[in-house]
Design a protein that fits this description.
Layout (H helix, E strand, L loop, with lengths): L8 H6 L8 E4 L6 H9 L5 E5 L15 E4 L6 H7 L5 E7 L4 H5 L25 H7 L2 H10 L6 H14 L5 H7 L9 H17 L1 H15 E11 L2 H13 L18 E3 L8 H6 L7 E7 L1
Parallel strand pairs: 1-2, 1-4, 2-3, 4-5
Antiparallel strand pairs: 5-7, 6-7
Amino acid sequence: MEYHNPVLLKETVDGLNIKPDGVYVDVTFGGGGHSREIMERLGPNGRLFAFDQDEDALANIIDDERFVLINENFRFIKRFLRFHNVKAVDGILADLGVSSHQFDVAERGFSTRFDAELDMRMSQKNDLSAYRIVNEYDEANLRRVFYDYGELKNAPAIARVIIEAREMEVIKNTEHLKNVLSRFLPAHKSHKILAQMYQAIRIEVNQEMDVLKEFLEQSLEILKPEGRLSVLSYHSLEDRLVKRFVKNGMFEGEPERDFFGNFSVPFKTIGKLIVPDFAEIKINNRARSAKLRIAEKR
């Protein structure tokens, strides 16, 4: 099975402006596609650290003394780089979202295509699962999850229906959940709405928005001046955070201006937003929603 076909592979790595003797981080190792491309461009003194919290990714480790794979969530990037005596790096790459492998392994519960347990954990060490959210969250929290992370206007009705259904019996698997939510899935756009529902639960399970914020803030701390950040996102919630942080160095509001009305921001945007062309989308359907932003620390 193909573990993961990297989206915008060349463009994402090009964005790092690799120095042969530099130190780089791939925070979403997965099948190792981006990491292998980075390694191709490193010289004998270059180093690459990669992160992946999914234990399945360990099977793809690169046998090279310049490479280190850290089996942890990238929200801890600063802590684990310090553990390896690395305080500053030349570039960081992030390919956000779920890997093709995670979607294709039915029992992980990420895909709308399969009947599976309500899991959706990117790390099997995570205590919180889709099962617990669906069966244990109160109505207010369910409403928040579907509204904030699925951007579903009928989130209150979805939450109420889940509460009513689980009072009758525990919602055990994805097929059961689909049946419970069937009234919200009109035939002409059922796949799109179901995907939004799954996305909402998955983001909550894995705390994806909090993780992304913590990662971006730490990236600013550990990048050297002129160090590059290359980030691929797959939905508007992620892209909005990345765009705001790259533009202002913050997630909300505007930076404070000085007496003359000027403000300093920590990043310089490199080039324009990059999206896959038709040919790539035709080969790899997952690429259709990808957006690549590249920034350089001032």
